[in-house]
Amino acid sequence: MNLEKENNLFLKEGERIDDLERNGYKIIQDRKRFCFGMDAVLLSGFAQVKENEKVLDMGTGTGIIPILLEAKTVGEDFYALEIQQDSADMAKRSVILNHLEEKIDFVQADVFDYLDELKELVNNKKNENLYTEDSYKKYADIYADASKILTTDGLKYSIQKDVDEAVKKLKDAQAQLEIKVNKDELDKLYTDKKDFKEESYTADSWKVFKDALLKAQEVLNNENATQEEVNQAYGALKEATDALKTKTTTPSEEETKGDKLGNTNGQGDNQKGQTTQERNAINRNKSKVKTGDETSLVIYGVCVVISALGLLLLKKKSY
Known about the structure:
Elements lengths: L2 H6 L6 E5 L6 E5 L7 H9 L7 E5 L5 H9 L4 E6 L2 H13 L6 E5 L7 H8 L9 H17 L2 H6 L2 H16 L8 H10 L9 H19 L5 H16 L10 H12 L11 H43 L1
Parallel strand pairs: 3-4, 4-5
Antiparallel strand pairs: 1-2
Helix pairs in contact: 2-3, 6-8, 9-10, 9-11, 10-11
């Protein structure tokens, strides 16, 4: 395949290939769009790029400056940022045309867009009080490095690769943060319930409660307990507390004695199901009836005696 046909493979309608007269490099341009001028050539000669340094060209257009800088300097990597899709597309094809894919990286984006994700991570700094000391220290160190990129000097010297690495490291650090264990609610519940008395509750419900109480105490005393273990212990104790069943109330000693007295008087069968007060009232009424009966007998006896005396007197008179 001849050179002309090879070059045409990279071109779209209205485009042309211009020779840069440097290291055999060429560039694709569209005569109807903006084409580079002498200012770009002068700027590439003015920039001082040292060995192993990285270069970022913001608003690169067709990529003229990074291509010339790669030809003129000993920089390690070159990055170009362009917001216009058509220009960025031409620049990428120019890189392929010159076999510079390993040296020049083009990004089609707004100059501020590539910082948005990093800005969001930095602006939403995690609360130190919520995490363990060791995990937060690692996060804080990485956060400080990421924040530097957003400073004036950081924006001046950082490239897309630096931003991407900072975002990745900061996300990883956030994922590795360990939440500080909070035992306050469990401790309060345990303190409120630990003095419950066994004799007040049924055996089955007390056993479940006692086991949950002991488990809660174990978790509270465990310095290495996780938040999940704390939450489980709290839930189990709360559930066991709610499920406690009180024992059925038994008759008092006084009522028991009253029942025995009632049975002694031969009234046990009739007084079943009656309260002590009801039985006492009935007994008092019965006592009153008994007294009335004795009084009636006395009167009756007196009357008989008087009648007998009357009859005796009548008989004497008749004699």
